[in-house]
Design goal:
Blueprint (H helix, E strand, L loop, with lengths): L1 E5 L9 H9 L6 H6 L9 E5 L2 E5 L8 H5 L5 E3 L6 E3 L9 H5 L6 E3 L4 E3 L11 H4 L6 E5 L2 H10 L7
Antiparallel strand pairs: 1-8, 2-3, 4-5, 6-7
């Protein structure tokens, strides 16, 4: 399964991944209009800045996902084909149980719609918008491999509780 990895060495904490995440889930492609909108979607990624290090935090689609087990309605499921943790917002009742058990705090509250939201890897796109628009290429969308693992171990952060 492809995941998003972050190279903390080159992440500058510009928050563009958050902006493009919101745009990916917006009603229109007009970035300015969406950012000014009171109904703009919640970013499914957040930036942690701990100078001199910055990195993006988003769902890691855990092998053994506690959010799936905790979901009261079955809104969160593991896609057996891709390995991704999917979220059916129609089934979500906004109980926030998934948020409480997520080991990295990757599930967010959409208070306006009273739903949980999480990274969906920009389903339907070849590459997530946050990755495609990262100015320093700090975000990498790749299959887990020995090369990626070595790069992660040497230079960057990937939250994979497995």
């Amino acid at each position: 399964m492809k995941k998003i990895y972050v190279n903390e060495e080159i992440c500058i904490g510009c928050n563009l991944c958050e902006v493009f995440c919101r745009l990916a889930h917006a009603q229109s492609d007009d970035l300015i209009k969406e950012l000014k909108s009171k109904t703009a979607p919640v970013a499914r990624v957040s930036i942690e800045v701990r100078k001199p290090v910055s990195f993006s935090v988003r769902c890691q689609h855990c092998e053994e996902a506690p959010c799936v087990s905790a979901c009261l309605t079955g809104a969160l499921k593991k896609d057996e084909t891709t390995g991704a943790i999917t979220h059916n917002e129609e089934k979500c009742i906004g109980c926030w149980t998934c948020m409480m058990v997520c080991p990295i705090g990757a599930i967010k509250q959409d208070k306006l719609r009273r739903k949980a939201v999480k990274c969906d890897l920009c389903e339907g796109r070849d590459i997530p918008l946050c990755v495609a628009n990262c100015p320093n290429e700090a975000l990498i969308f790749a299959e887990e491999s020995d090369d990626i693992k070595q790069n992660i171990d040497d230079n960057s952060i990937c939250y994979d509780p497995a």
